[in-house]
Amino acid sequence: MGPQAKRRKVASAVEEISFDPTARHDFLTGFHKRKQQRIKLAQEYAEKKAREDKREERKKIRENRTAEIQQALDESRKMLQQARGSVSGSESDSESEDEWEGFEEPIPVDHEAEYIDEDKYTTVTVEEMGTTRDDLRSNKEYSPAGDEVDHKTTTNSSTGKNDKPVKPRQKVNSEKKRKKKFRYESKAERKLTQRKERMSNRKHARSRQES
């Protein structure tokens, strides 16, 4: 027997090919429309990406700010701790030192000033007034008014006028009779006084010459 013949695959034949005229028209005339759609989609994608980028930037800025604030807080805490430690050390040092003994007594004012004017020669002594209790008591004891009262009582008793009852001593207020303070004159006042004294001296000299 001879070789067998090869079997061929028989493809199914298309019965009919039909074209859709509307689809063909849309495909042929829709190039511009499809182009505009692609542009719109690209714009939407770009806007979406820009929004995402802005969000990422804002997130990074917030993170950087929080990190800076935290760093500042840590530095301020360290500074406070150092300040507290220095304050506690200074307090311990001050406690170890001697206690405060009050203000020092001021230097007493006691000096003399000399003024010379033609025929006159004056010397002014400035002394400090006592402000302590002992000084006030001494001023009361040695007041001139008290001496006058004691002198009057002694004279009355010595003369023998004992008919009238002796009045009790009155307390003298040292505050009322205060010590007079010396006041320095200004330049203008000095000039006026010097002129007056010169005029008076000239008048006296003329009167002496005439006499």
TrEMBL record:
Q: Where's it found, cell-wise?
A: Nucleus, Nucleolus
Q: Where is the composition biased (Basic residues)?
A: 201-211
Q: Where is the composition biased (Basic and acidic residues)?
A: 45-66, 108-121, 130-140, 183-200
Example of a GO MF term: rRNA binding
Instruction: Give the start-end ranges of region Disordered.
Output: 44-211
Instruction: Output compositional bias ranges, type Acidic residues.
Output: 92-104
Output a single Gene Ontology CC term carried by this record: nucleolus
Pfam families (alphabetical):
Nop25
Predominant localisation class: nucleus
Name the family the entry cites: Belongs to the RRP17 family.
* Protein's UniProt name: Ribosomal RNA-processing protein 17
